[in-house]
Fold this sequence. Notes:
The chain is of the alpha+beta class.
Amino acid sequence: MLKNILMWLVRGDLFFMPILSFGQWVGFTKSIDPGFAWTLPAQGDVVLGFELAQLIDNATVSVDFCFYDIEFPAVVTSLINAQERGITVRVITDNTLYSNPEILELENAGIPVIDDAFGDLNSGGGEMHNKFAVMDQAIIWTGSYNVTIYGTYSNANNGLWLENVGLASAYTTEFNEMWGSTTTTPNPATARFHGAKTDNTTHQFYQNNNSWQLYFAPSDGLTSRIIQAINTADYEIYFSIFAFSTASIADAIHQKMLSNPDFVVKGVFEETYWNTSWSMSLPMRGDGENGWDPPADVYKDSVEADLGLKRLHHKYMIIDGQHPGSNPKVITGSMNWSDNGESLNDENLLIIDDPNIANAYVQEFVARLEEAGGALEFIPQGLMIEPPVVDFRNVNYNESAQVPFTLKNLSAAGIQISLGNFTGPDNAITIPDSYNGILAAGDSTSLTAQFNPAYMGQHVALAPIHLDGESSPSRYLTLQGRGVSDQPTPVVINEFMSNPEAVYDNNGEWLELYNPTGPPVKLNDWRVIDLDGDYHHIEASETMVLPTYGFFVLGNNGDFATNGGVNLDYTWSGYNLANTDDEIILHNDLGETVDSVAYLGGWPLMSGRSTSLISSSADNSIAGNWFSASTVFGMGDKGTPGALNENEVGLASENRPVGFQLADPYPNPFNGSIILPVWMGQQTEIEIFNLRGQAVWRTRLTGDSEQSFITWSPQTLAGGLYFARIKSDESLKTFKITYLK
Length: 741
């Protein structure tokens, strides 16, 4: 999924570069003013529909799509293509727009679609005004953008996406509340829109050490959240708004002006409502009985439209956006600041504490303000770091990379800075040199960071920055990179227990991963899924690394005393293994399939026995490359969780453990053919005898054979009981086998 985050994207003659940091992006449909950029220019004149379509095209598991209006062709095509390639797609829209021909097109493609009149509790009153999508339960898209031709080419809109599993989970919870279920089938008995909804989601999240708050209307009191954010402002408030009628929000802004004569308020209103009696544009510009004195510096927009109906469709506010040391905030989402937005409509609202995102919105705001006839002065403030996130990108394991970065003082006075001599987790990311001293106003200095990947996967480190002699860090510099290899990721689905006998299934199911070749692999943010909706995202506060020749066991119950006696490395939830006919699909943190197994009836699936891969190099899509374990563990079930399988997975013969035993032949009884295990790397003779002791079949393997099993098919023999004798230079094993014919 995130390959596209880490590279320059080319579309026609335009270059689109992800900005801000790894795993997040902000774009605007109209121009921006790069003269207000602290570090990188914001992304202006973007075709948001193409960006959203690309995220849908990259989805590998699911797309939950919740938009007021849906018609932009590229997005509709991407949704249909996702459905056709097996992605779970669910769509919610507004009931007044359900008759759009594009909705019928989605439904004809087999995509389930509902609107806010669906279900027993909903009448469609108000608007389903959300504009968000969740891809793979990990990537969120939101903002002011409706998926329409006008929204794409004529209206001033903002869109952003973020990879954050916690935030995605909250959006998914909200989607499921409206959908009425967690499946592809909406439930009319439990679907809840508008006033029937409850405040049932988490609100606080963190991304790159910055705070993101999420609220939904009408259940979460969005107006009060906006006012709380306004009350944190120290220097300025800028806003760009389609509809603004909520007096309490305007009053909170006014109080800031009254309490501080130097406080700056600047805003741009959509032209359509500039003179409407309910619009806060009237009192803010000093008109009427309640007109502000002095008035705020607000304007009627003059958005240029490429075609048709133009609109300033934003719903954003920037708080202290030119003062990075004053906790800048951006408020954005689908909500207009109105009574309907607060109490009636389905809406989402983000409050983002991130100076770099705030700066991107400032660049867009200045362009709209100047377009409307206003002006804004650039205010240099504080310490800026270029680039704001040190990103090494992809570096081969056991190699190294260096990235320079610059500290720049944009304030009018010197800043005492201490940064460097830093070593991050796993000794992978370091800043070997340092800066300790006073950086004069307008001056800059450069340092270099180094990355030596300790494992395959994403590495992140936060280097503390101390300003003005403070003992506690004033800020953190984010450094990140990805360890990669020229070879495929060497993680193998090696063994699984789908049907324990010593304990119930919901206590004793487990899965073993094995790394037969290396290098070490980080498993954080990997996902285990199947094709029926079972899904688990591997989350842990500590780094989980699967070393070379190492095992990683995960399952549904981490209690050794009740899970059958398995020492789990990780406990999952929301995922289970069917006794027969199921899939185990392993995705890395980029959404790429690393390994997968689809087991069916006819596989060696036995109650109380794990299903084990006969060799880590074997094709695990073939039933014949698996066997039922015979080694007892824990409370009496059979398997080797966290240890070598019985057929020496991944080891040369000279590394064979003492006391090694062959697995049992399988399936047994059999009809057609049977798999007979052999000692890999040894000269081996296999003989089959009938009940009279007569040899009916024999074969020999040389000592240089890499085979770990052989197949016997007694097509011309009578059904009944036989004995298989497997003899090597060192060992002899006899098995009783039953041929059903």
